[in-house]
Design a protein that fits this description.
This protein has about 270 residues and is an alpha+beta fold. It has seven helices and ten strands. The longest helix has 23 residues. Bound molecules: zinc ion. Zinc ion (ZN) binds next to loops.
Length: about 270
């Protein structure tokens, strides 16, 4: 599943090709993605220029003066920039064609992705309005997590993965950040001290930043090859390492399930 670093890499990858470019066509080959692609978008988007390529959580936002395209990659989506002449394949459901003869193409085999159209402020769209702060923004602090955790009895790992608390901390990043901070993923959020949150927050930021940077190094591949940035190359300390020795202490990494997601942790290093 594309996580925040992959989405940010995609945003950075498409931006130079479509910013300030005029839309000449919109091709909807299959409109029933997670939600139906609104037909009105086609009429309103053609002739417009992309004036900003932004991201909020895992949503990519293509602003024009007539409205904003809201893109989500779902479980299996990827974006590519191609020459207009490249023939669409089976899972290529949606294209925006530009005046420079390039096309932004969404491929999404499982069709959990989304293409939506907002004629007002996209940040107020019902899917975006309740999102928590961006993890790399100044709004995401230890104090913020501490204050928002006092009345919640949920475990820390699902708490971090709740997009109403903070966006973009996916399963891999939640596992790795908790290991880096030495916090047991089962601990109740309201029992974790401010000091522990002060330790945790910089770890989350550092791990996400590193992933985005690594994605950035493969931008060329992203554009030319299969649309998959190499964000996953980051060394993982616990994620997917069930029954392998802990990189710190050698104790075997344990796997459990929390909120239907796999959790990996070291019972010695994470208290
Ligand atoms: Zn350990």
């Amino acid at each position: 599943m594309p996580e925040l670093p992959e989405v940010e890499t995609s945003r950075r990858g498409i931006k130079p090709h479509i910013l300030n470019k005029k839309v000449t066509d919109v091709i909807i080959r299959r409109k029933n993605l997670r939600w139906t692609i609104p037909v009105i978008m086609k009429k309103q988007l053609i002739g417009q220029e992309i004036i900003k390529v932004d991201r909020r959580g895992k949503y990519i936002l293509l602003y024009t003066s007539a409205g904003t395209v809201i893109l989500h990659l779902g479980m299996s989506g990827s974006l590519r920039i191609l020459k207009k002449s490249v023939i669409a394949e089976k899972h290529d459901h949606f294209d925006i064609v530009f005046s420079n003869n390039k096309v932004l193409r969404l491929r999404d085999p499982r069709r959990f992705g989304a293409v939506l159209w907002s004629q007002s402020d996209p940040l107020k769209h019902k899917l975006l309005i309740n999102l928590g702060p961006e993890p790399l923004s100044e709004a995401f602090t230890a104090e913020y997590l501490f204050e928002n955790s006092r009345s919640r009895k949920v475990a820390i790992k699902p708490f971090l993965m709740n997009s109403n608390i903070v966006v973009g901390v996916g399963n891999i990043y939640a596992n790795e950040s908790l290991f880096a901070a030495g916090i047991n993923p089962k601990r109740a959020t309201h029992k974790i001290s401010l000091k522990s949150y002060q330790n945790l927050v910089p770890k989350i930021k550092a791990i996400l930043k590193k992933s985005i940077e690594q994605g950035g190094t493969t931008l060329k591949d992203f554009i030319n090859e299969d649309g998959k940035p190499g964000y996953f190359q980051q060394t993982l300390c616990v994620y997917g390492r069930d029954s392998e020795p802990c990189v710190n202490c050698g104790n075997l990494i344990k796997q459990i399930t929390q909120a239907q997601r796999s959790t990996f942790y070291c019972t010695t290093c994470q208290k």
